[in-house]
Amino acid sequence: PLALLLKKITERLPKFRLQHAPSEVVELLAGTRAYLDELLEQARVARVPLALQKHRPLAIGSFAPKFEAGYNLDTHYDPDRSRNEITKLRRQVNKERRGAVRELRRDAQFVAGERLKEQREKDKSYADKMKKAWSVLEADQSDMKKMDKARIKERKAKV
Q1: Which of 87, 124, 125, 152 is deepest in the core (most CB within 10 A)?
Q2: Burial bucket for residue 93 (CB in 10 Å: 0-12, 13-18, 19+)
Q3: Secondary structure of residue 2 in the 3-state scheme
Q4: Is the sign of the CA dihedral 93, 98, 99, 104 positive or negative?
Q5: CA angle, 155 as apex, 150 and 158 as ends, to 5°?
Q6: Which domain of life is it from (predicted)?
Q7: Phi, psi of 38 (to 5 degrees)
Q8: Strand, coil or helix: what is 10?
């Protein structure tokens, strides 16, 4: 794009009344245009069409699968023994953690059940005490009413 622009500028110098432009500007324009034309020509000569690779494509290495006679899903067949041991220990720790959490839940449920039993026993004993108190009060109340009725009968009998 710059080469086309420089070409247009040099062609239209007389139209812009720059024919009397400083010689340095004209020389600079001509030199830059010549340099760009040379670079463009070298680039055109150096162009080569795209081509596919010359060698045959390399095959992906394949190996015969290794079969274990006593294969077990629980064991891991990692060739790196230390990594295998670390994995085994991690699994064991997780298993133990899950067991501990399960045991803690059971303990918490048991403790909650015992507390509930104790609370029910307290509530039952309180209810029994209240029943006894009410029965005593009701008995007293009935005795009072009987005595009142007896007094009323005596008064009526005197009159």
Answers
A1: 87
A2: exposed
A3: helix
A4: positive
A5: 125
A6: Eukaryota
A7: -65, -45
A8: helix
